[in-house]
């Protein structure tokens, strides 16, 4: 589930991570990711995902 974040300015592809939220820049502003699902895994909230992966994420 995605939600535009109007007050956050990120470049397309830029990612901002803090303890409870995950935002990704797009061509039309930033998007806040509330939940996500990795392949073969159950859907989790962004805070649950970040608690498990923290800032050790690798982006391609």
Structure commentary:
This protein has 60 residues and is mostly beta strands. It has one domain. The strands form two sheets. The protein has a four-stranded antiparallel beta sheet with strand order 1-4-3-2. Strands 5-6 form a two-stranded antiparallel sheet. The longest helix has 8 residues.
Question: How do the strands line up in the largest sheet?
Answer: 1-4-3-2
Number-wise, the strands total: 6
Q: Overall 3D geometry? A: globular
Query: Which consecutive residue ranges, at least 5 long each, have pLDDT under 50?
Result: none
**Separate helix tally:** 1
Topology record:
Layout: E1 2-5, E2 15-17, E3 22-26, E4 29-33, E5 35-36, E6 44-45, H1 46-53
Characteristic key phrases:
mainly beta; 1 helix; 60 residues; 6 strands; single chain; two-stranded antiparallel sheet
Concise account of the structure shown:
This protein is mainly beta and 60 residues long. Helices cover 13% and strands 35% of the residues. The strands form two sheets. A four-stranded antiparallel beta sheet has the order 1-4-3-2. A two-stranded antiparallel sheet has the order 5-6.
């Amino acid at each position: 589930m995605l939600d535009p974040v109007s007050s956050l300015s990120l470049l397309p592809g830029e990612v901002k991570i803090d303890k409870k939220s995950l935002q990704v820049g797009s061509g039309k502003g930033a998007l806040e990711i509330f939940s996500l699902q990795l392949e073969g895994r159950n859907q989790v909230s962004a805070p649950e995902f970040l608690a498990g992966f923290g800032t050790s994420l690798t982006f391609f």
